[in-house]
Design goal:
This protein is of the alpha+beta class. Helix content is 29%, strand content 31%. A 7-stranded antiparallel β-sheet has the order 1-2-5-4-3-6-7.
């Protein structure tokens, strides 16, 4: 003889079980949604929007120069707490290496607000047109690299900008 749960206990118990299941799944979804820090809001979006025309002009100027920028990651450069070495190779429109420039390497995550890292570019010794920087790449995924190049440290006028998306 099998014992059955009486209907006046089974059906209210089923309703309670479904409600508890719903609460548990909603709690799990809420925790997952908040795991990346929550909402990503640009701190001063209005100021950034005012610079849009300048940014577009610089992009046009960079394209008109015909310079090329490529990223490289040396094999001996394993990720470390200080960052990972990034090689930036700059060439002019004719393919000749660009020397005696200064600049910075800016890293952003497309999914997050703000600059993750802003590091100087240092000319590599005995390698014309190659500049080195330490990139603080601390997670797997997409990264946006923006290379800002200036004529010299004394003249901070930005002459070239390149934007490259890389996945790790």
């Amino acid at each position: 003889m099998t014992k059955r749960i009486p209907a006046h206990i089974f059906w209210p118990g089923m309703v309670v079980a479904l409600l508890l299941f719903t609460v548990a799944t909603q709690t799990a979804l809420l925790m997952a949604a908040q795991s990346d820090g929550g909402e990503q809001i640009e701190a001063d979006y209005y100021a950034r929007s005012l610079k849009w025309d300048e940014l577009q002009a610089l992009r046009g100027q960079s394209k008109a120069l015909g310079w090329q920028a490529t990223l490289g990651f040396p094999a001996q450069s394993a990720p470390s707490p200080e960052g990972r070495t990034v090689e930036v190779t700059l060439k002019d429109a004719d393919g000749a290496p660009l020397e005696a420039l200064t600049g910075t390497l800016e890293l952003r995550r497309p999914s997050l607000v703000g600059v993750a890292s802003l590091e100087p570019l240092v000319a590599a010794p005995h390698r014309p047109g190659v500049y080195l920087s330490k990139a603080k790449i601390n997670a797997v995924g997409l990264w946006d690299f923006t290379i800002h190049v200036h004529k010299s440290a004394e003249d901070p006028t930005e002459v070239f900008m390149a934007e490259i998306r890389q996945e790790f």
